[in-house]
Amino acid sequence: MEEDSEGFRYPVVDTDKCIDCGLCEKVCPIKAPMQDDTVPESYVVQHNDAEILRSSTSGGFYSAIAKYVISKNGVVFGASFDENMVLRHTYSETLEGCAQFRGSKYVQSLIGNSYSQAKRFLDDGRWVVFSGTPCQIAGLFGFLRNRKYEKLITVDLVCHGTPSPRLLAKYIWPITLQLQEAR
């Protein structure tokens, strides 16, 4: 992935490693959108635990689905900030570890190797819940070559676009870090 002038990341083919198989274009959700006319199941949920509800956005649904998947020895993928305030997709195998995924982030996360990690867990027969923006979920399905996994649950976030990462780095992160240091 390479950054553009605003800090948004886009896939770039490494021509030194490319074997001209065309797979990247076949799974690209922009060049080859999925032609799936099925209507996914949709839910409106509000968590009944007041503490989880207070620390969550969107009614705390993600915490409920995470608890379900963890109870089945599954793995939960989501976005959390690292020690340098970089938003990265990662996973947790514990309910306590899933707390880092709560709350809205409003910035593009780094997927890293989370797609291959999710595939490995699925291939091992484990439950996986993966949350992300619609384009990240489309990327996951493309990576999985649209194979249907019975134990895969995806949670698409309502996305109206993310702000420029460069803008956030320049103006918002310094303020956020100052607030954290003041605590």
Model description:
The protein is of the alpha/beta class and 183 residues long. The protein has a domain of 124 residues. It has 6 helices and 6 strands. The strands form 2 sheets. The protein has a 4-stranded mixed β-sheet. A two-stranded antiparallel sheet has the order 1-2. Strand 3 and strand 4 form a beta hairpin. The longest helix has 18 residues. The protein is globular, with a radius of gyration of 18 Å. The termini are far apart.
Helix share of residues? 25-40%
Structural class: alpha/beta
Distance between the termini: 35 Å
The strand order across the widest sheet is 4-3-5-6
Q: Number of helix segments? A: 6
Q: Helix-strand pattern, N to C?
A: EEHHHEEHEHEH
> Average pLDDT across residues?
84
Major sheet details: 4 strands, mixed
Low-confidence stretches: none
| General form | globular
What proportion of the residues form beta strands (DSSP E)?
5-15%
